[in-house]
Amino acid sequence: MPQHHQPSTLAALGRSWVEAWNARDLERVLALYDEAAVMTSDRIPALGFDASGTVRGKDALRAYWGKALGLLPDLHFTLIDLFVSPDSVVVLYANERGKRICEYLRVNASGLIVQGSANHLVA
C-alpha cells in the first residue's frame, strides 16, 4: 500500500518543483527525484531520447533535462494550481510560451518523486 502524505507536504513539493525549474537548477530539480524515477513525455523522443517516450533513472533524467534546458534559455513556469492525492501531486502550470501543462508526480514513502508524466493539451 502506498505511503499517504499530508496534502500540505505534497503541495510544498509541487511549489518546490516549480521553483527549482525556474531557478534553472537541474541538480535542485533532480534532488526531488528517487534514483530509479521514471518520466514519460511526448517531448522525450522529440529530443532524441527513448522512442517510447519514457526515461528511467536520474542519469537519464539529467541527460534529457540538461538538453532541454540548453534549448530553452527562457524557460519559466507560472504555477496555476496544485492537485493532491495521498501519494501524488499534479502541478498545473503555464510555460514561458503560455502553454498550459499538467505534471503528474507520484512519490514514494520518503517523499521523493518516483514517477512523473508531462501532460499537454491536445492541439
TrEMBL record:
Domain SnoaL-like: 15-96
InterPro entries: NTF2-like_dom_sf (IPR032710), SnoaL-like (IPR037401)
Gene3D superfamilies: 3.10.450.50
Protein name per its UniProtKB record: Polyketide cyclase
